[in-house]
Fold this protein.
Amino acid sequence: MRSKLFLTITLVFVPVFLFAQHSYVGVKTCGMCHRSEKSGNQLGIWKNSQHSKAFETLLTEKADKVAKDKGLKTKASESPECLKCHVTGYNVDASLLGKKFKMEDGVQCETCHGPGSDYKKKSIMEDKDKAIANGLLLYKKPEELCIKCHNEESPFYKEFKFTEFWDKIKHPISAKN
Ligand code: HEC
Ligand code: HEC
Ligand code: HEC
Ligand code: HEC
């Protein structure tokens, strides 16, 4: 009896405690340190990419027409069926959204790198292992991340060619790649 209760507590509460605590700080916060040419201007590269416009896209007539044709009762910009690939944070508890976080920023830094409240500090960021331990997501195989959204569930799916697409959004720290 006791061990069963213990198991329940472990299974239910430990994961919530471990995985739900990082909160979203927003692109502006990341951009404070990631916008100089010297460090690779990740902010500028992202701003010039379609990812930064992914929410705006849902505000268009074209988007609403697709939503309607799919039988959705809400506008594209209010439908979880569309938001799930076009923004971050729409389905997250408000307590986990920082003041500077904006869903309107679309597919943003934290969509791919994870919520940053605990890794954004300079001393942590400079140490890759510490950053990862505090929630930073990096990818050995970036393609696996991309195809979570770039797939046939997308109403406007274009064949996803990793090298070609990555070339349009890559944002290295130095000019090394
Ligand atoms: C206080 C400044 C600061 C803030 C804020 C900050 N970073 Fe960083 N970040 C750094 C520094 C410094 C590095 C170390 C790499 C370097 O030399 O530029 C780094 C490295 C990284 C790396 C590469 C890690 C690696 O080792 O490959 C990623 C990815 C990253 N940051 C993402 C983010 C994201 C996403 C945010 C916002 C949630 C963010 N950073 C906020 C300063 C910052
Ligand atoms: C969370 C979902 C999501 C992930 C993950 C994602 N994307 Fe996207 N991507 C989108 C959406 C949504 C758009 C369309 C934005 C728009 O046009 O409004 C897009 C657009 C693009 C475009 C522009 C395509 C065009 O036709 O001009 C490129 C390039 C791209 N993504 C590359 C990538 C790469 C490379 C990865 C992986 C490293 C990736 N994306 C991961 C959602 C995602
Ligand atoms: C599985 C992820 C996914 C879902 C779900 C999704 N999208 Fe997208 N959307 C994308 C990606 C990725 C692109 C970029 C096109 C590409 O390269 O495949 C995109 C592009 C678009 C575009 C721009 C097309 C263009 O070429 O002008 C519109 C409009 C759009 N989506 C509307 C919607 C609407 C409306 C919904 C909900 C009914 C929706 N999307 C659901 C991933 C998704
Ligand atoms: C569509 C997903 C996506 C978005 C959006 C995105 N990144 Fe990345 N980022 C990646 C991937 C994939 C890599 C390369 C593989 C890795 O190290 O994880 C990367 C690498 C980096 C690196 C390390 C580059 C290096 O040379 O080692 C930094 C720093 C970084 N991103 C910061 C940011 C910041 C800041 C933003 C927002 C302004 C951002 N990223 C937005 C997916 C993304």
The CA atoms of residues 170 and 177 lie 9 Å apart. The mean pLDDT is 91.
